[in-house]
Design a protein that fits this description.
The protein has ten helices and five strands, in the order E-H-E-H-H-H-H-E-H-E-H-H-H-E-H. It has about 200 residues and is of the alpha/beta class. Helix 7 packs across helix 8. The chain binds adenosine-5'-diphosphate. It comes from Paraburkholderia sartisoli. Pfam families: CoaE.
Length: about 200
C-alpha cells in the first residue's frame, strides 16, 4: 500500500496533522506508539532489554523504567546504540505487521526520527514534513509537557535541524500560527494528491 512517512521536530505538530489525515480515513501507523507497546508490561522487547541492561531497568510491573533509561541514553551513546539495536528491528517488524493490516486509500507512518534514522526514508513512498519555527516548538512543548526551556532545547539539539528535515521532504506543512481550519485545508489538498498518487 502507498505509504506516506510523516515527520517533524518535537512540538512541530505532526500528531495534530496526522490526526487530520486519520479523520479522512487514512490508516495511521505510529512508531512512537509501537515503541511504547513493545516496552510495556509483557512487551516483546522487555526480555532482551532486561538481559542487556539488567533488572534495574525493568519497573515493578515489567515495563521499561523509562526515567532511568532516558537518563542513561541521554549521556551514553553506546547505551543508546545497544537499546536501539534491540528496539529498532522490533519496531520495524511491528510497523510492517500493522502496514499489512491497514485499510483505506493509503497509509501514513508517523516517524518522529525519520530523517535521523536514514533507513525509514527508503521504507515510505513519500516524506511529509511538518515544519515550524524553533521558538514555536519550544513554546508548545513547554506548555504540553511542562518542560523547562532548557529541557526542550536539549531535545531539539539531539534531533535533525530544520534545514536537514526540509531537505528530505517531498511535501511540507507549515504549522506556525496556523489555525486548525487552515491546517485542515492544507491536509485536504495533500490528501487529494496522495489519493491520486496511490491510484486508489
Ligand atoms: P508533535 O507530535 O510534533 O510533538 P503535537 O501535534 O503533539 O506535536 O503538537 C504539539 C502541541 O501543540 C500540542 O499540544 C498541540 O495541540 C499543539 N498544536 C500543534 N499545532 C497547533 C496549531 N496549529 N494550533 C494550535 N495548537 C497546535
Amino acid at each position: 500500500m502507498f505509504a506516506v512517512g510523516i515527520t517533524g521536530g518535537i512540538g512541530s505538530g505532526k500528531s495534530t496533522v496526522a490526526d487530520l489525515f486519520a479523520a479522512r480515513g487514512v490508516s495511521l501507523v505510529d512508531t512512537d506508539v509501537i515503541a511504547h507497546r513493545i516496552t510495556a508490561p509483557g512487551g516483546i522487547a522487555m526480555p532482551s532489554i532486561a538481559k542487556a541492561f539488567g533488572p534495574s531497568f525493568v519497573a515493578q510491573d515489567g515495563s521499561l523504567d523509562r526515567t532511568r533509561m532516558r537518563a542513561l541514553v541521554f549521556s551514553d551513546d553506546t547505551a543508546r546504540s545497544r537499546l536501539e539495536a534491540i528496539t529498532h528491528p522490533l519496531i520495524r517488524a511491528e510497523t510492517e505487521r500493522e502496514r499489512n493490516e491497514a485499510r483505506g486509500p493509503y497509509l501514513m507512518v508517523v516517524v518522529p526520527l525519520l530523517v535521523e534514522s536514514g533507513s525509514w526514508k527508503t521504507r515510505v513512498d513519500r516524506v511529509l514534513v511538518v515544519d515550524c519555527a524553533v521558538d514555536t516548538q519550544i513554546a508548545r512543548v513547554m506548555r504540553r509537557n511542562a518542560f523547562t526551556r532548557d529541557q526542550v532545547l536539549a531535545i531539539i539539539a539531539r534531533q535533525a535541524t530544520r534545514e536537514a528535515r526540509l531537505a528530505a521532504a517531498d511535501d511540507v506543512v507549515v504549522n506556525d500560527d496556523v489555525s486548525i481550519e487552515a491546517l485542515s485545508m492544507d491536509v485536504d489538498a495533500l490528501h487529494r494528491q496522495y489519493v491520486a498518487l496511490a491510484g486508489a
